Amino acid sequence: MPNAWWTASAPAGGSAPPAPSSTGWVWPRPRPGWRAGTSSRRTICRAPWRTPWPTGAAWTTGASAAATAASSWIGCSRSSPWGGRDEMREDETVGQILHDARVAKALSREILAVELKLPLRHIEAIESDDWEALPPGRSRPLARQLAERLGVDLEFHTGAFHTVPGVQELAPPDPRQERLERLVMGLLTAASILVALWLVVPGPSLGRKPLPSYLTALPRSMPPPPPPPSTSPYPVLGELLPEAPLNDQGALISLRSLDTCDVRLEPLPEVGGPVQVRTLRVSEPWRLRVKGPFILRLDNAGVVNVEVAGVRIPHGQNVGEVWVGSFDAEGRWLRPVLPPPVAADPQPPDEEEYGTPP
What is residue 344's predicted lDDT score, i.e. its pLDDT? Predict the structure, then answer.
């Protein structure tokens, strides 16, 4: 059968397959390394022998054979196993590739949106290369998802897929920085080797015995014996000395109150001196020295502890009672002399108490 009709109907830019024989089409053997749907060079069509041409009565007329061959030849003119132009167009975009694949599979955008569970506007944006309409960072994943559904391998369209936003720009290598890194690594390696050798290999001085030092020949000095315990009556440093109850300045008076109390301290008239008055309060002790005899008056004696010349004075008063005490120059309490008790005359027994004698 002549193949003039096929040569005329073949698409531009590609070679027509060989003419059919009387029993069917005779297909050439594929090139080594060329398999179905792939090639060592970029291709967008499938291998023709995946769907063999029909034989026999199906090719009785040239018109039907031409129509079938032309429909099978669509999309394969850019890459063919038997010659022709093997390179894809460089100006083709990812959206155009996916659009052509969807049309070739006779799928609508609505069907793809339902199958992939994507909004219809996303599929329209991908086919129109409107990447700004997609969510940020989702352009490349959505394009891969749609290409996988349509059977398009984007690895063979690296030039077109590189235009999709999201490609990580890699800075060109700096030869100067690479040389500097190699130099630093070499120095670190050499330093590590030197440290390991210094730790493992013993030095020349380690195998010899050390020379005797002149310090070993000196007699060992003994520590001095501890000092004997002190028998002095004076206390050690830091110990608090109590005040002397009586000295040249007079007798020591200490007053501590548990409540408010008015105190009056008056020297005797023959000694003379100022009268001291003070109100005692809780946690406010009054300590003073008085030279010569004096009189001490407490308005609320039951709440005051009195100590004169180191001796506690038991005044025996209750709360709210007034107490007055006289003291000599050495702080001794001059107790008042009580009159002796008067002896009572003996009284006869009461007759009513013991009854009338018989």
Answer: 67
The pLDDT-based confidence of 173 (bands split at 50, 70, 90) is: confident
- Give the other-Cβ count within 10 Å of 130's Cβ: 14
Nearest 5°: the CA angle 125, 130, 133 is: 75
SS3 call for 111: helix
Whole-structure pTM value: 0.31
Name 144's Cβ contacts closer than 8 Å, sequence gap at least 6. 154
Range with the poorest average pLDDT among 72-76, 121-125, 280-284, 307-311: 72-76
293-313 residue pLDDT tens: 888 898 988 889 899 888 888
What is the number of H-type helices and E-type strands within the chain? 9, 10
Cβ atoms of 16 and 3 closer than 8 Å: yes
φ/ψ (deg, to 5) at 46: -95, 160
Please check the confidence at residue 182 and state whether its pLDDT lies above 90. Answer: yes
Separation between Cα atoms, residue 93 and residue 136, nearest integer Å? 20
Radius of gyration of the chain (CA): 63
**Edge-to-edge strands, sheet with 333-334:** 276-280, 261-267, 294-298, 323-327, 333-334
Alpha carbon distance 61, 39 (integer Å): 33
How many whole angstroms separate alpha carbon 70 and alpha carbon 159?
29
**What is the dihedral sign for C-alpha 66, 68, 73, 74?**
positive
Q: DSSP for 117-186, please give it.
A: T--HHHHHHHHTT-GGGSPTT-HHHHHHHHHHHHT--GGG-HHHHTTSTTPPPPPPP-HHHHHHHHHHHH
